[in-house]
Amino acid sequence: KLHSDLDKGVGTVKYTLSGDGAGTVFTIDETTGDIHAIRSLDREEKPFYTLRAQAVDVDTKKPLEPESEFIIKVQDINDNEPKFLDGPYVASVPEMSPVGAYVLQVKATDADDPTYGNSARVVYSILQGQPYFSIDPKTGVIRTALPNMDREVKEQYQVLIQAKDMGGQLGGLAGTTTVNITLTDVNDNPPRFPKSIFHLKVPETSLVGSAIGRIRAVDPDFGKNAEIEYNIVPGDGGNLFDITTDQNTQEGVIKLKKPLDFETKKVYTFKVEASNLHLDHRFHSVGPFKDTATVKINVLDMDEPPVFSKPMYTMEVYEDTPVGTIIGAVTAQDLDAGSSSVRYFIDWKSDVDSYFTIDATEGTIATNELLDRESTAQYNFSIIASKVSNPLLTSKVNVIINVLDVNEFPPEISLPYETSVCENAKPGQVIQTITAVDKDLSPAGQRFSFRLTAEASTKPNFTVHDYRNNTAGIETRRNDYNRRQQELYFLPVVIEDSSYPVQSSTNTMTIRVCRCDSDGTILSCNVEAIFLPVGLSTGALIAILLCIVILLVIVVLYVALRRQKKKDTLMTSKEDIRDNVIHYDDEGGGEEDTQAFDIGALRNPKVIEDNKMRRDIKPDTLRFPRQRPTAEDNTDIRNFINQRLQENDVDPAAPPYDSLATYAYEGNGSVAESLSSIDSLTTEADQDYDYLSDWGPRFKILADMFGEEESYNPDKVT
Q1: Which of 184, 218, 239 delimits the end of a domain?
Q2: Nearest to 162 by CA among 132, 184, 187, 140
Q3: What are the φ/ψ torsions at residue 312 (nearest 5 degrees)?
Q4: 389 domain residue, yes or no
Q5: 501: cis peptide before it, omega within 30°?
Q6: Same domain, yes or no: 312 and 391
């Protein structure tokens, strides 16, 4: 209520209100000054309002007093329940945790005024989840309430938490939330085999390294706490097997380390131990985290291929051994209970040339060809053994045959076979050191001896000095060797080996006499060099040869230019093809032979200009039928030729396609007129050929021929 001291109660004062909520939340009686709330107030929405009031004269509208400000504070009541803003909650705690282990802290918020009364004082309690968990009523911390909670028994828990204001008193407002608690796994359980013995059946033909069976130990733990390691306990048969862990299934995979043989041992028994990889020291007191089971493996008998007595056979044979000689044998057995017979044969892929044969029953190997160590020193092939009862079961073994050497080749002198001696050589001078080679396989300590033949040892020119170390020296026995007297000497050297039987060969060395300087350096070994002019240097010889080459080049160029000039002249003379006479060295094939010469030179220039059609290719147009004119006895020959000419011009398929048939009167435009006798009314005997002599030198031969016939004509009177 507002009141001014100037208000006498006669209605001359008017009260006004302004500020927060004036007219919307609060209103004032203009006459009495009473302030009223016109709607419900919510402290949580706006805790206080600041207003301004003033007394105004009704008549003059002027303020009677200065404007005054006042605050209206909203008093709180308990109209909001506590709320869990972060709920629902998810938490976890390790299994087997002790009582009071921390799980989670929850918090509820009350919108009421915490400074006024107990409207905002919250108390927490568990409505669902006891007796497993407890909560602090003031802090909201959740803890375990029971010891040794086992995840393997129960893993998930749902706890219902209540928050109540007014300190939990009657009439207070409450809110709830859910907490989902999961027990996490710890390694509190050892692995256990579901049975104490496992029986496995394994074929004896199982491959080494293959899996032959699986066993499994059960661990109720989860994740890495359930990872199991399997080991074979040393004992009976354990060294033939190995065991690994399948990471996906945690099973123990038993693998074969060595081959099995039913005939040798039929049953293997060993123990397998399963243990955890990740141990928790808090649970060591529970007991050992491992378990043991027995594995019994029964080997199944299978039909197996024969087995060779050795993994590889090595034999030796001398070269040139007669065909059919037995050099060794292989042996294979069937170890199965039935003990079938075995057959042997050579793998043809490894012995394509069939140098050896094998007895199918006994397994003896014999030569099938003559062997040559120098050609092939070792043979490597395979022998296959199969069971008679089951030929599909085979086994293979490698056989190596070394060919032993027989001393069949004589030693030979190694290169060079030719040497030289200086004209000024002195007696006893070594001009060449020689060695020997032997195609045979030389044994250790092989020695070669060198000597001259009996005939050569008597000559006074050269000798051989054997150094007893498989080398020898060619020595001179005199001086004054002369190239002009003898240029070449042939020295027969005999070489023997020390093997049995002794082999020897005679090797002829060529010794060339050369001109040398005083130091023994060879200057020339050719006899022709003796007769060369003295003082003519190498540079002078090169200069002479160079001059000769230049002269030859000049001559060749001159001849080529002359030929080119003649060719150009000939081409110029061919421009007028009507005055050109073409000579051929061979006889042609007649009128129909269009391939023997170039008929293009006989083309009629007039016809070429009139008809531009291509004659070098066959046209695609239809062939026109050839019109053959009816020739009468008195038909003019010129019309006939023109008709034939027109006929060929309009026929695109007329052969040949690369030439043009030209028809015209012979002698047309010539001063000699026609030579043909077609138009002559007289006989050959009435002809006078004396006029041929007047036509010039071109017709001289023709004039002589007809002049001779006239002179020898017996019917003509001279």
Answers
A1: 184
A2: 140
A3: -160, 145
A4: yes
A5: yes
A6: yes
- CA angle, corner 321, sides to 319 and 327, nearest 5? 100
Quick: pLDDT tens for 87-112. 899 999 998 899 999 999 999 998 88
Same domain, yes or no: 418 and 520: yes
pLDDT confidence of residue 244 = 92
Do residues 416 and 508 share a domain?
yes
Residue 520 to residues 249, 428, 460, 481, 512, Cα–Cα distance (Å):
92, 15, 22, 14, 14
Q: How many CA atoms lie within 13 A of 456 on its CB side?
A: 18
**96 shares a domain with 17:** no
489 shares its domain with 418: yes
Dihedral class, residue 470 (left if φ above 0, else alpha if ψ from -120 to 50, else beta): left
Cβ(240)–Cβ(258) below 8 Å: yes
Alpha-carbon gap, residue 685 to 679, rounded angstroms: 15
Question: Are 454 and 462 contacting, i.e. CB atoms less than 8 angstroms apart?
Answer: no
The answer to whether 116 touches 75, Cβ cutoff 8 Å, is: yes
Cβ atoms of 181 and 93 within 8 Å: the answer is yes
Please indicate, yes or no, if residue 467 is contained in any of the structural domains: yes
**Which CATH number characterizes residue 469's domain?**
2.60.40.60
Q: Return the residue matching tokens 């160079």.
A: 546
Instruction: Look at the chain and report how many structural domains it folds into.
Output: 5
Query: DSSP 3-state assignment of 584?
Result: coil
For residues 76 and 43, the answer to whether their CB atoms sit within 8 Å is yes
* Beta carbons of 434 and 414 less than 8 angstroms apart: yes
* pLDDT over 60 at 664, yes or no: no
Q: Which residues contact 36 (CB under 8 A, 6 or more apart)?
A: 26, 27, 28, 29
Residues 128 and 201 in one domain: no
Q: Are 185 and 278 in contact (CB under 8 A)?
A: no
Q: Which helix (H) or strand (E) holds 315?
A: strand 312-318
Mean pLDDT for all residues in the chain: 81
What distance in Å separates the CA atoms of residue 142 and residue 194, rounded to the nearest whole number?
Answer: 39
Q: Quick check: helix, strand or coil at residue 256?
A: strand
Is the pLDDT score of 632 beyond 50?
A: no
Instruction: State the Cα–Cα distance between residues 706 and 718, nearest whole angstrom.
Output: 16
Kindly state whether residue 654 falls inside one of the protein's structural domains: no
Same domain, 26 and 105: no
Does a structural domain hold residue 38?
yes
Q: Which domain holds residue 257?
A: 197-300
Give the total residue count for the chain: 718
φ/ψ (deg, to 5) at 548: -65, -40
pLDDT for res 342: 93
426 and 509 in a single domain? The answer is yes
Query: Could you tell me if 397 and 312 are in contact, meaning their C-beta atoms sit under 8 angstroms apart?
Result: yes
Mark which of 73, 91, 106 sits at the end of a domain.
73
Interatomic CA distance for residues 87 and 109, integer angstroms: 12
CA torsion sign for 411, 412, 415, 421 is positive
